[in-house]
Amino acid sequence: MSQTTKLSAMSSAWLQIQSTLNSINHMLIFLVAAFFFTLARSLDFKDTAMHMFMTGIGFHVLIAQALMSHYKVNPITRWISHKNKSRFHGLLQLVGGSMVLLGALGKFSQKEVHLNTWHGRFGVAAAFGCAASVVGGLVNFFQPKIVLQVMPPSELRFRHNLFGLLTFTLGMTAIYLGYYSEFFTRYVDHQFIPAMMLATALVYLLTIIGPLGSLLTKLKYRRQRNHQLKQEST
Prior knowledge:
By secondary structure, the protein is mainly alpha-helical. 80% of the residues lie in helices and 0% in strands.
């Protein structure tokens, strides 16, 4: 077997592995979404239950799906054009981000909000990051001339990719820490909570495979571009 054939076989096997992992991720996302909905519904979507549902669905489902929209092994978006993938990504980000912000604002309006917990701190950071990511996403999609005068499209896409991943990390960390909260320990079987924590951790890790690969590629070209600009200026 030639070296080229070996590389082609390895590449094909890696794609198959990614496809399998992506399918597992979609199943986990669906199961977590069903759990969030069932729990919130059992509590009539009131107060913290609504907060949990809005932010959980926003980050754990919609924004996770948005991040995977350009992933080549994603069965949901695999067959649509790049432009439509961008539209799908933007729509999910907008709806998911709006749900997160509304869920966060609802919690902020309650007197029992405690920012002395790590869940609360990461939640606040995630909410602000989500607002910034929504604005940044709109700028990245429409690319107004005034912004392009400050930075090229490649730099704009790189920053959008980077801050999107950071915001998703903050949001999923807040959800993970939320399983330790008084709300979950009161209404959810303690033996079931570790399973939810594992599901959230797996969804996070499996979701960022595509976006992280894209970010590393953008970082490579960004370094090459900066190196070229330095050489031209000397």
